[in-house]
Amino acid sequence: MKNTKKEVLRNCMPAMVCMVISGLNTIIDGLFIGRNIGEDGLAAINIAWPVPAFIIASGIGIGVGCGINYVSALGKKHEKEAKEFLKNAFVFLACAGILYSVIFEMTAPYLMKMLGAEGKVHTLAVQYTRIIAAAALLQIFGAGLVPIVRNLNMPIQAMAATISGVCSNFVFNTIFIFVLQMGMRGAALGTVLSQVVTSVIAGVSIKKSGALSREDVDEKRSGYIKKIFLGGIASFGISLLPTWVLALTNYQCLSYGGSRTVACYAVISYLVYPAQNMLTGIADGVQPLFSMCAAKENMEKKEKQIKGVVTRLVVFVSIFVMLLLFAAAPVFHKVFSLSSENYEPFVQGLRITAISLLFYGLNRLSITIMNGKGQHQEASIIIYGEAIIYTPFFLFVLPKLFLVTGIWIEPVAAAVLTEAVCVIGQLRKSEKYEYTKAG
Hints:
mainly alpha
C-alpha cells in the first residue's frame, strides 16, 4: 500500500502543480489588465477567453488522447504502435493549429459580438483575440505536448515545462503591459510567448526520451488519428467546459447586472479556475496508471488501491481550497481592485462557487478514470451531458428565481448533479460486472 501511495503521489503532485500553475496564467493576465486598463479590460479578457481556451482544450485533448493510446499500446508490448501514436499526434496538433488560426482570425469581430462584447470592451476583446488567433499553432503545441510528456512517465519534466511557461508569462506581461504600455495586445503576446517556452521544453523532453526514434512510417495515419480523437474527446470537454460555462455566465451577468457584474465574475473565474485545474490535475496525474492497469491483466486489486488513495487526496485538497477561498474572499476583492459596489456580490459569489469544488473534484476523477480505462463513450456522455443539457438549464433558470445569486448557485447545482450521474453509472457498471461474473 505504501508503494501505491508513493506511485500516486509521484504522478499526482507534479500534475496538480502543473495544472494549478497553468491556471495562474489567467490570474496573471487579470492582475496586469485590471491594474493597467481597469474593469473594461477585465471584462474584455473574460469575454475573449473562450478562444484561447478552445485552442488549449484542443491541444490537451489531442495530448491526452495520444497519451492514453501510447500507454495502452506500450502495456500490450506494441512498442512500434506506441511510437506511431506519438508521430501522428504531432501531425494532428499542427493541422488543428493552422485551421484555428484561419478561422479565429477571420471571425474575431463577429465572435466577440456574439459573446456579448460592446463598445470599448468589444475593441479590447478583438485586439486580444486576433493575436491569440495568429499564434494558435504555437499555443496548441504548448498545451498538447505537456500531457504527452506526462504519459511518457516524465511528470517532473511536464511540470517544469508548465512552470517555465507561467514564469515567462509574468516576465513578458511586465515588459509588454507595464514597460511598453501595449495593453491588451501585450497580454495576448505574453500568453503566446509563454506557450512557446512550454512547448520548447516539453518537445526537448520528448526528444530526449527516445520515444520518437526514427522507424518505418505506418501509412495508416487516419486510424491512429481517429483513436487519438476518441481518446481525447472527453478531456477536451473537461478542459473546455469551464470556458463554455464562462461564456454563458458572462451573458447572464450582462443581462442581470451589466459590465460591473461581468468584472466581478471575471475575478471569481480567475480564482476558481486554478482550483478546478488543481483537481483536474490530480485526475490527469493518475490517468497513466489507470491506462496501464487496463492494458495489463490481473490488475484489479492494484487499480482499487490507486482509486482509494487518489479519492482521499481529491477530498482533502478540495475541502482545503474551498475553505481558503471562503475565508480570503474579502482580501481578493482588494487585490483585484474591484469597485466598492462589487464587494457584496463578489464575496457572496466566490463563497458560493467555492462549495462546488468538492463535487467537481470527485466527478472529474471519475470521468478521467473512465477515459483512462478506455471507456471513452461513457466519459464523453457524462461530460457533454453536463455541458449541453443541465449546465445551461441551471444557468438560465436559477437567475430567474434568485437573480444574480442564481448565477453563483449554478456551478454547485451542476457539480452535484454530475457527481450523482457518475455514482449511478459506476453502481450500474458494478452490478453488471457482478451479474456477468456470477453467470
